[in-house]
Amino acid sequence: MxxxxxxxxxxxxxxxxxxxxxxxxxxVQTHISWVLLAGDYAYKVKKPVTLAFLDFAxxxxxxxxxxxxxxxxxxxxxxxxxxxxxxxxxxAAPVLGGGGVAIExxxxxxxxxxxxxxxxxxxxxxxTAAHISDLAQTLVTFHASAAVAPQDSRFGxxxxxxxPALDNLTIAAGxxxxxxxxxxxxxxxxxxxxxxxxxxxxxxxxxxxxVRECHGDLHLGNLVLLDGHVxxxxxxxxxxxxxxxxxASELAFTTMDLIQxxxxxxxxxxxxxxxxxxxxxxxxxxxxxxxxYRALVRAKVAAIRGGQADPGAGAEALTYxxxxxxxxAPPAPRLVITHGLxxxxxxxxxxxxxxxxxxxxxxxxxSDVERKRLxxxxxxxxxASALDAGLYAPDAHVRTYERLHELAQMLLRAGxxxxxxxxxxRRAERARFAALAQDCGAAFAIxxxxxxxEQLRERIVARQAAGRDASEATLAVLDKQLSWIEPLDxxxxxxxxx
Length: 498
Hints:
The protein is of the alpha+beta class.
């Protein structure tokens, strides 16, 4: 980026040109924009540049992209993205929002405390599972309402998915040291093999409407904590192909970035909370492909910066290359089932398994959530089911465990470790999942937290009063469970997690 500023930007560094109180003006530059921080507002002016992935060459093109940026970001941040402002006057004496002929355009935004950006929150060790749960719900809601790519469009087709992935590798190969070439060749082969395997799924997801007008650049630096909630901002407006993507690609980017920020447990938590809320477990089959792609995008960009004498960028590129390799080679999968009476702490224990996984390779299935999903209910909706009726009728119980088995099998075969959070009170139910682990070449373990009957009763009463959990277990349910639980036998106890 050149240090020489055009006359318009130099003039806009003077507080007197703004129609609201401004003490000083700060300038933030990217390779495609100037952002002027003036009082309570920020003004983004697009640079008149033409790059491989965007064209801001003419005033009309910049105007159109300002309008797109406003429209797209107002989907999730209307209180931040306020309006497009025409800049009149002359470059030396600009008038923001003035009449006459526009000489440039800017997107006017409300400023927020930069310390609330999630990359900064994460860097100071303050990013929590609660923040990630909030992000997951925001993301699921946004994706559910985002426009669906037309079936006859190019977006999300297998060819459009593969081309940029291979381009990243080609560009990176021309910029990274010769010692990296064998590693890049290996990742190219992996990408092509995975793409060939996943092509039928890519086609099916396009037909299902899973390719949508997403954010497109959802790393931690484009998420901010405002008023206790995580908000999205600064989506991609300048390139449709980078924005109209499978929701799996969007989720993979944030997950990859959490891993890069050394938060594998929170990466697991994001996947758990998102997939549990959306029910789109099929995403898991695509996540590693897209996460490797996203890591290689970062490697390529850093390598480009390194070629422009950006200190430290070369090392950053190699860090992302190593991350791509790590993501492409997950550890051997493991299947863990829980066992125990209602209120014993199964969900708490399964949550810890997710948050404590250093490999970010574990997904969870909850019987309480999937049981309700099978009946068209959200996790917190009440079914008003009586004992042995409705959601808890014998046939509903069988259907729930069948669904858990089906999903666990899909996830294990996609290379993920799986925790199935369910009561598993019957020995035959546990044996069936042990056999599934063996069939899928996965290790098997049982997580069986303990509690006294008095503790169980207290917890069930407190959980019902709070109304913040998918479980609808009552004291009557507990009494019935106590009458027919089949405890772990000696062979099963040997598989129990400490």
